[in-house]
Design goal:
Helix content: 40-55%
Order of helices and strands: EHEHEHEHEHEHHHE
Distance between the termini: 27 Å
Radius of gyration: 17 Å
Shape: globular
Structural class: alpha/beta
Strand order of the largest sheet: 3-2-1-4-5-6-7
Number of helices: 8
Length: 251
């Protein structure tokens, strides 16, 4: 199936590793061009080099109010256009409700929530018909995840913003979509498993509760993201798609 991605240009934030990098890799594999971002300049450059000439790396922190303008300018200067963005943010600090500090909540709000809102608003102002804004969220949008209180608090609100944005931008032909990963085999998930003290046992326990009985591979998530961002998904907007092996309870 031709996704129609050839020569389309996307910004992918948080793309030096994990789900962001996997998504950028699948986009470029299908012919798109990408601006990949990360907070560290060298890691952003290395990620872009690994993707080849269809990628350029730019150091950017999602919590920086100036980041959106710099990324939009980089896309236009490097590739001559902008067709969309995938906003992927590193997970906030783990912890229970009684343990997380005001500082952790504040830092996560700036990066996970307000930074994503700023990026989406800035890109929306630049996009024309056929443009798309994607959010990498979490299964915590629908069901709280034990030990991830900050994520449980912020991700549902960001999903609500994304849904509202899809209604606002729909008449302009701009789509807004969200992806809700659960246990995808990334460094972040391995780190969370290790917090239990026995990572192998934690993984086995999680896998036993996933209908497909395994963690997802990053490339499986990346292919899903590439499809949702592509013209092939031109009638999908306002959706929050679980990418979780069937873990979500309910429909």
């Amino acid at each position: 199936m031709d996704l129609g991605l050839k020569d389309r240009v996307y910004i992918v934030t948080g793309a030096t590793r994990g789900l962001g990098f996997a998504s950028a890799r699948e986009l470029t594999a299908d012919g798109a061009k990408v601006i990949v971002t990360g907070r560290d300049e060298k890691r952003a450059a290395d990620a872009a080099a690994a993707l080849g000439p269809s990628a350029a790396g730019v150091a950017a922190d999602n919590s920086d109010p100036e980041a959106a303008g710099r990324l939009i300018a980089a896309a236009r200067e490097r590739f001559g256009r902008l067709d969309g963005i995938l906003i992927s943010v590193g997970g906030p600090a783990p912890g229970l409700a009684a343990d997380n500090t005001d500082e952790q909540w504040g830092a996560a709000f700036e990066s996970v929530f307000l930074g994503a809102v700023r990026l989406a608003r800035a890109v929306a102002a630049e996009l024309g018909e056929g443009g798309v804004i994607g959010f990498v969220l979490s299964g915590s949008v629908h069901e709280p995840i034990p030990g991830l209180t900050i994520s449980n608090g912020l991700r549902p609100g960001l999903a609500g913003f994304a849904k509202s944005l899809s209604v606002d931008l729909g008449p302009r032909g701009i789509r807004v979509v969200g992806l809700l990963p659960a246990r995808i085999d990334t460094d972040r998930v391995r780190e969370l498993d290790a917090l239990s003290g026995d990572a192998a046992a934690a993984r086995a326990g999680h896998e036993s509760r996933i209908p497909l009985r395994r963690y997802g591979a990053p490339e499986e998530f990346g292919r899903t993201a590439a499809f949702l961002l592509s013209p092939a998904a031109s009638y999908l907007t306002g959706v929050m798609l679980p990418v979780d092996g069937g873990s979500r309870h309910g429909f």
